[in-house]
Design the sequence.
């Protein structure tokens, strides 16, 4: 090769090297950039992992807090039950007006506190997914009216009309969770009354469906302050109220609606609302429920001519429809119209007159009729408020809101005196001459005292035991009509004690046992029944419920306990 | 076209025809970098076409034969530089389908912009395989040389029958390979 050729070859080699170096440089830069990106990605990934760990920790912490909240609420309920029970007993003693007022206020405050505790407890259970829905047969009208009647006094105090319209097509015997249904209704009715200052609050129940599967629709209408559109969306969120100032003005935890909606959803239904500020609100929910048996009997009043006198148009409309469903022919009238109608000729077998607003003429009209002999041979039924008890001559008297069954019965036999609200749930117990013995079992001294005193006031003799072992011994040794058995106790709990009693020889093992627990947890009832108990009662002791239980299992008039 | 092909072509040219002939070809082929190639670079394939033409003129050997010879040479070089592609391979009928399914895949990973030919192999019996070559570049001769080189590498006698296919937008050739004896 010549020098020139060698020189060119060298140049080419150099040039190739430069090219290679440039490529290397470019590739290195590219690699460096890619590596930087990888490092950044790695850091992001690590941050994500940290966040995930933090998130997990937060979830765990939230769950622990929920758990703590649930435990706290539960712990607080026990002393609250003592306070409420004692106040109930105190109210039933001789009290001066001032003392009565003080105890009433104390009881209302205690009930308010218990409601908040129950809300918090429910909320934390729903959050923890621990709230299960039961499926049991119940009578819809009984549940509804019991719930509506709870609000009668509040409505009267506020001067509101509380109406309830259960359509005749709604089946009465349904399968579902009556307790949770009541809870939702209490929330909606409570809100309705709370946020309404004049006018009315109405519960409307209608049904769609056929055969066994029904969708029942519940609506609570009020003529209250309404809810601005901007607040409607967050209304069902927990801890939120329509307006921050609402809390100061009306109180409440802001959990109620959130719980209500979640309960409805747990029961397979839907909940919603419509509202216009200043005009009122309508909250509704629907529930899919299985029906057992047909709707309420109709035609029961066939041929009866009824004069219906009510100052509230809506109320007239509701009762007119109900009466017509029962087969009556109805003339619905205002007080003025009624005066004229009856002046013509008395062609009615029954007149129902609304006297719930003093001074609006209902009561006067009835007195007038009675004096003039216009009601001779006519069954006159007066509707009043829970506080207008007293003498109404030979007229039957019913407190508004009136259960349709009660009105039906009043119209049917005219004897409504027995439907009057009792002045005291306890009475004096004097009628119960053949005193029966009830064994009350509870390890908590306050609870034991509350329950014993309630039972005593209902006319029974009481013996006590403070654990399951003592209870079994007492049952073996004495004659009892009933055992009220606490579930959680030291030495031997209520379940074990029940099992022991059921395993005894002879008739004594048949004794009715009613479980009493503050837990109110779902599945408790099933557990109690499975353990051989006959019935289940949750604390706090409600005088009304206690009376029902004693009536059913221990009263001298009850047919006696029969185990299946 | 990848620089390794150019670098190997220069190596072969120098080994077979001497440094002076190589210098001549490089000087007369009007190459962009004056004939300086690095195996990691990428160059216009037309430069290879021009070098082959100049070498053919200089040596009097037909261009097709030169390219085929280069193909055979290239297979041996690849076997030396990238032995892992030949590992576990015992016959060319085993190896050739792998070019498309494995080697080209690996090349694409390193050089995403590489314009590789497409090779489709169809086995038609124990001793017969049809290989279709498609490329944007006219290098069917190079492919034929490489097929022959593959046969040699595995110590086989391969008969290669070739048929040009007329296809729009690509150079396409069908090679029918028959194993002899």
Sequence:
């Amino acid at each position: 090769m010549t020098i020139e050729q060698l020189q060119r070859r060298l140049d080419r080699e150099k040039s190739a090297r430069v090219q290679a170096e440039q490529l290397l440089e470019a590739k290195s830069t590219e690699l460096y950039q890619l590596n930087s990106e990888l490092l950044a990605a790695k850091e992001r990934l690590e941050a994500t992992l940290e966040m995930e760990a933090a998130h997990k920790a937060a979830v765990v912490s939230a769950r622990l807090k929920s758990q703590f909240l649930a435990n706290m609420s539960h712990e607080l309920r026990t002393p609250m039950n003592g306070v409420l029970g004692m106040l109930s007993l105190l109210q039933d003693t001789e009290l001066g007006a001032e003392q009565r007022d003080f105890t009433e206020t104390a009881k209302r405050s205690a009930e308010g506190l218990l409601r908040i505790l129950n809300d918090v407890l429910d909320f934390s259970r729903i959050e923890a997914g621990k709230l299960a829905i039961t499926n049991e047969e119940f009578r819809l009208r009984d549940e509804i009216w019991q719930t509506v009647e709870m609000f009668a006094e509040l409505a009267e105090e506020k001067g509101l009309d509380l109406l309830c319209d259960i359509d005749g097509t709604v089946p009465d015997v349904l399968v579902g969770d009556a307790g949770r249904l009541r809870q939702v209704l209490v929330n909606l009715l409570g809100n309705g009354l709370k946020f309404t200052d004049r006018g009315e609050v109405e519960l409307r129940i209608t049904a769609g469906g056929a055969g066994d599967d029904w969708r029942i629709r519940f609506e609570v209408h009020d003529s209250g302050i309404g809810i601005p559109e901007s607040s409607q969306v967050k209304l069902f969120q927990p801890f939120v109220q329509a307006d921050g100032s609402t809390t100061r003005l009306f109180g409440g935890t802001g959990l109620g609606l959130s719980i209500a909606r979640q309960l409805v959803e747990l029961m397979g239904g839907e909940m919603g609302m419509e509202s216009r500020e200043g005009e009122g609100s309508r909250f509704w929910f629907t529930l899919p429920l299985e029906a057992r048996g047909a709707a309420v009997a109709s035609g029961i009043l066939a041929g009866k001519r009824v004069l219906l006198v009510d100052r509230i148009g809506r109320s007239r409309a509701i009762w007119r429809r109900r009466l017509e469903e029962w087969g009556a022919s109805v003339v619905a009238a205002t007080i003025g119209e009624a005066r004229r109608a009856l002046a013509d000729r008395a062609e009615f077998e029954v007149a129902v007159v609304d006297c719930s607003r003093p001074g609006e003429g209902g009561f006067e009209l009835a007195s007038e009729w009675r004096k003039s002999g216009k009601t001779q041979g006519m069954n006159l039924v007066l509707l009043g408020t829970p506080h207008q008890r007293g003498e109404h001559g030979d007229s039957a008297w019913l407190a508004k809101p009136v259960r349709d069954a009660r009105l039906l019965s009043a119209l049917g036999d005219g004897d409504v005196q027995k439907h009057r609200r009792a002045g005291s749930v306890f009475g004096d117990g004097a009628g119960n001459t053949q005193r029966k013995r009830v064994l009350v079992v509870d390890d908590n001294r306050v609870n034991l005292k509350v329950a014993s005193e309630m039972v005593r006031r209902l006319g029974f003799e009481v013996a006590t035991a403070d654990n399951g072992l003592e209870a079994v011994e007492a049952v073996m040794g004495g004659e009892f009509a009933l055992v009220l058995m606490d579930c959680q106790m030291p030495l031997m709990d209520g379940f074990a004690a029940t099992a022991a009693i059921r395993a005894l020889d002879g008739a004594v093992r048949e004794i009715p046992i009613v479980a009493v627990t503050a837990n109110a947890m779902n599945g408790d009832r099933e557990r109690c029944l499975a353990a051989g108990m006959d019935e289940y009662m949750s604390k706090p002791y409600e005088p009304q419920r206690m009376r029902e239980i004693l009536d059913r299992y221990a009263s001298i008039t009850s047919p006696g306990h029969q185990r299946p | 076209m990848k620089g390794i092909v150019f670098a190997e072509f220069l190596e072969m040219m120098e080994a077979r025809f001497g440094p002076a002939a190589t210098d001549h070809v490089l000087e007369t082929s009007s190459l962009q970098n004056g004939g300086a190639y690095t195996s990691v670079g990428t160059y216009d394939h037309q430069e290879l076409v021009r070098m082959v033409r100049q070498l053919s003129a200089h040596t009097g050997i037909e261009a097709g034969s030169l390219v085929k010879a280069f193909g055979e040479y290239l297979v041996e070089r690849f076997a030396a530089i990238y032995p892992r592609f030949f590992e576990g391979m015992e016959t060319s009928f085993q190896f050739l389908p792998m070019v498309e399914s494995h080697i080209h895949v690996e090349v694409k990973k390193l050089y995403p912009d590489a314009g590789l030919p497409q090779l489709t192999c169809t086995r038609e019996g124990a001793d017969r395989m049809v290989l279709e070559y498609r490329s944007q570049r006219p290098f069917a001769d190079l492919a034929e040389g490489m097929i022959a080189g593959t046969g040699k590498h595995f110590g086989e006698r391969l008969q290669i029958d070739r048929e040009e296919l007329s296809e729009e937008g690509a150079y396409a050739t069908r090679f029918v390979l028959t194993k002899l004896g």
The first helix of chain A runs from residue 3 to 91. The interface with chain B takes residues 1, 5, 8-9, 11-17, 19-20, 23-24 of chain A (CB under 8 Å).
